[in-house]
Write a structure and sequence with these properties.
Beta-Lactamase; alpha+beta; seven-stranded antiparallel beta sheet; about 475 residues; about 20% strand; Arc Repressor Mutant, subunit A; about 45% helix; 3 domains
């Protein structure tokens, strides 16, 4: 692409394109330019449309080919020995090789595919991704590590636990990176893994989430010295934000699964105790039916499944989950999934002001068992659809961040709201974590491709 073809871009878009080509993530670009993440995401989508590029690798290629960015202009040391005339083409080929291998996988599949592809790079024999050991108990030692994904020359390996003291991983933990173009076994004689692999070179970086917290490490190992180590540094810098996001989501999902199993066991104990006493708590049988349908699901399937089955099990017309979303420049909500009579319907955006969701967002919950339209007269859709009752709870993460609202609406009064409230409380914590994952993952994927922030791919419809 000739440089003149970038004339369709605004100065801000050219600036963002250059930063994308330099390996900056969208949150990092937002922070650097002092703009909101939503603004940067909008520019990113505009770049994709104007340049006909579907992912950040294509955008990087366009920027470099047009001379907007030189791939050897990064703030790294010059390579020890390499023909710089083919630098850009070589590194872009590596980026495309890895990008093609990982698309469109997520979480554990993404991490393993990334390692498979990275371990096939010239001069690399092993690629690995590690995280603090998730099963080390309450006394967390950051040097207790677990390899979440590993591959040797494209072949997946088994995850292992190890202690990072005296290894390159210790340097990653303390300094944020570790680079050795040769002699890595001599530099880390206590590292038995390096000795077994007969490693000679190592390239490793710290993986950080959007908040800047370390969530793991990413490393490449070679059995021969590496002269142009900076090329690998740039490739790792390019993919590190996405790898960090997928690793964090996998860790969260696994933690939720452990918590979910513990909660299921508590409910089983509770049910047995009730049966022995001959007591019955309203809603337990309905909750058990709901659990049997959704507890085995994860991610987007769990979010959709919970909404559909909530509507079915409790006989409600509407159930849905919404997140914050500007509507015509005003604060609003976006339903990432919505069910009518247990069937998925079009996702929608709607204004926040005067709606029950606004109260839930501010106060944490709302329970109006009858005549909800009179309580919220500004919400005309309640009257238009003949809706009479509303129950909603706010979804708060473990850190207290508000991420969404789950609500149910019916066209008749709800005589006994306790079974519904019991079920909403049962899934409130897990659902908040799943919705938070959904939001983070969509932001990460928007770096690679244009994706709408919904679970169904449906068009906007009418507000219930």
């Amino acid at each position: 692409m000739a440089a003149e073809q970038l004339d369709v871009l605004t100065p801000r878009e050219r600036e963002i394109l250059a930063l994308i080509a330099e390996g900056e993530s969208l949150p990092e670009i937002a922070q650097r330019l002092h703009r909101s993440l939503k603004t940067i995401e909008s520019h990113r989508l505009s770049l994709g449309r104007k340049l006909n590029a579907s992912n950040r690798v294509e955008l990087a290629r366009i920027a470099i080919a047009a001379g907007l960015v030189k791939i050897d202009s990064h703030s790294f040391e010059p390579p020890l020995a390499h023909d710089t005339s083919d630098w850009a083409e070589t590194e872009l080929a590596w980026l495309e090789q890895i990008n093609d291998a990982v698309h469109p996988s997520v979480r554990g599949s993404f991490l393993q595919r990334f390692c498979n592809a990275a371990s096939r790079l010239p001069g690399i024999d092993v690629a690995a991704i590690c995280t603090p050991d998730p099963e080390q108990g309450d006394k967390i030692d950051p040097y207790n590590r677990f390899i979440m994904a590993i591959a040797e020359r494209g072949e997946p390996g088994e995850g292992v636990r190890y202690y990072a003291k005296g290894t390159p991983c210790e340097r990653i933990i303390t300094d944020g990176e570790c680079f050795a173009s040769e002699g890595v076994r001599s530099a880390f004689p206590q590292d038995t893994i390096l000795q077994q692999l007969k490693a000679e070179s190592c390239i490793g970086v710290c993986l950080r989430n959007n908040s800047g917290d370390a969530v793991g490490g990413l490393g490449l190992i070679g059995r021969q010295p590496i002269q142009d180590i900076n090329a690998y540094r740039r490739v790792l810098a390019f993919f590190a934000p996405r790898v960090a996001t997928e690793l964090e989501q996998l860790n969260r999902m696994q933690a939720m699964q452990r918590e979910q199993e513990a909660m299921r066991e508590q409910i089983r104990v509770y049910q047995r105790a009730l049966a022995e006493r001959g007591d019955e708590v309203p809603g337990i049988s309905l909750l058990a039916r709901l659990e049997s349908r959704v507890d085995h699901l994860v991610g987007a399937r769990f979010i959709r499944g919970l909404v559909d089955n909530f509507s079915a099990v409790y006989g409600l017309r509407f159930a849905g989950i919404c997140i914050e979303h500007d509507r015509d420049g005003e604060p609003g909500f976006y339903s990432i999934t919505m069910s009518e009579w247990a069937h998925q319907v079009d996702t929608i955006t709607y204004a926040r002001c005067g709606t029950p969701c606004e109260t839930v967002w501010a106060e944490g919950q709302v329970c109006v068992t009858a005549n909800v339209a009179a309580v919220y007269p500004e919400d005309k859709s309640l009257t238009e659809l003949g809706l009479d009752s509303y129950i909603g709870v706010r979804l708060d993460t473990a850190s207290g961040e508000r991420v969404g609202v789950m609500w149910v609406i019916d066209e008749k009064p709800i005589e006994d709201p306790e079974p519904i409230r019991l079920a909403l409380e049962r899934y409130r914590t897990r659902l908040a974590a799943e919705v938070e994952q959904h939001i983070r993952l969509n932001r990460a994927l928007s770096v690679n491709e244009h994706r709408e922030p919904d679970l169904n791919g449906a068009a906007s419809g009418r507000q219930p």
